[in-house]
Amino acid sequence: MRMNALDPRLTPARPDLAAAHLRGAVEAADYVEGTPYRVVRERAGVTRAPDPMAPLTTEALFGETVTVYEATEEGWAWVQLDADGYVGWMALEALAPPGAPATHKVAALRTPVFPGPSIKLPPTALLSFGARLSIAGARDRFLVTAEGGYIFADHLAPLDRFETDPVDVAARFLGAAYLWGGRSSLGLDCSGLVQAALAARGIACPRDSDMQEAALGHDIGFAGDIASLQRGDLVFWPGHVGIVENGETLLHATAHFMSVVREPLDATLARIEAASAPVRTVKRL
């Protein structure tokens, strides 16, 4: 298999270096075994180049795990995210050894981490929906992390507890800023919103909209009839995706409004078709 046949977004391979498990599948000057790490920042950006001005391609949230294939003297790590397989560069200072395995996830849109069992203490972090933590104990209304942080118990859920409706999850992000490459409640893009909503339901979801279009659900053969759309359908345009809320509205993170919005379906379809292209695919889960 030639390297150019593989998606570079998901393939830890460069001409000079590749993951050891790709030996024989791609050509590289050297092959390395990866080293597991976890993210210890509230969110950590992933870019295509080890450059602070490189465009953001995705983010990893606190507690998520990555495999590091290279760490540079300049403070960069070349990583692959364990959750969705995305490959890129991340600041090395955002990472630490794995530590205790995660047991819980943030189920609120955002939650503060306090240094003690009081909401009056200055928080040490503000974690977003989907962040992962290892819980070591409980005190009063708080769960206590392995690092000694205190989080309001109702803002967390066990890793194996899933939401029942991804559309409800997407709606919680209404008003969140649009951020190219973002995955947190502080800013996310169209495919980041869909990924967060489906992951909360326990549905494995790729990162980018073209990957989602290829991997998720089945094509309903949409021919422009809005009445044929159902709650939870994913509507794809070239480079964009939204999730149908009901027969009249679409939820999506859009650069047009620089926000996650609820927009009338008919107006959305007409606006995007006039500006760029018509709907390409509708996938039903």
UniProtKB/TrEMBL annotation:
Record domain NlpC/P60: where: 160-283
Example GO biological process: proteolysis
Membrane-crossing segments per the record: none
Entry GO MF terms: cysteine-type peptidase activity
Xref: Pfam families: NLPC_P60, SH3_16
Keyword Hydrolase: yes
Keywords: Hydrolase, Protease, Thiol protease
Keyword Nucleotide-binding belongs to the record: no
Family to which this protein belongs: Belongs to the peptidase C40 family.
PANTHER family: MUREIN DD-ENDOPEPTIDASE MEPH-RELATED (PTHR47053)
Protein name: Peptidase P60
Provenance organism: Ancylobacter defluvii
